[in-house]
Specification:
three-stranded antiparallel beta sheet; 108 residues; alpha+beta; 5 helices; Arc Repressor Mutant, subunit A
């Protein structure tokens, strides 16, 4: 087996693992939620009706595997409360690359 085919097979296996991570039902909902804009964990949790801690865990899993980025920003909840720091997440181009690679086999 040539080095090129070995590298190609390793990349394919890596991409399958990323696809598996993306297709987990809660993460798939999170990815859908982040499709058009960055959001913070509590916002996503409310939107897809899960606990904030569960959303955070899945977001960190996506980040660990290069499917999401995290950026800390100030948010203002109400005039009576001081601003707070929240971790905002956004998808990386890797998500779209994986979608494109497996679009025919797994339309999502």
């Amino acid at each position: 087996m040539s080095k090129k085919s070995t590298d190609s097979e390793l990349e394919y296996q890596r991409d399958l693992k990323l696809l598996y991570l993306m297709l987990q039902p809660t993460r798939a909902k999170i990815i859908q939620s982040l499709q058009h804009s960055s959001k913070y964990a509590k916002e996503i949790a409310r939107e897809i009706e899960i606990d904030r801690r569960i959303a955070f865990w899945h977001l960190e899993t996506l980040r660990k595997y290069g499917l999401a980025l995290r950026e800390y920003r100030l948010i203002k909840y109400a005039k009576s409360k001081p601003p707070a720091v929240a971790a905002f997440y956004e998808l990386t181009p890797e998500v779209e690359r994986i979608r494109q690679r497996f679009a025919e086999k797994f339309p999502f």
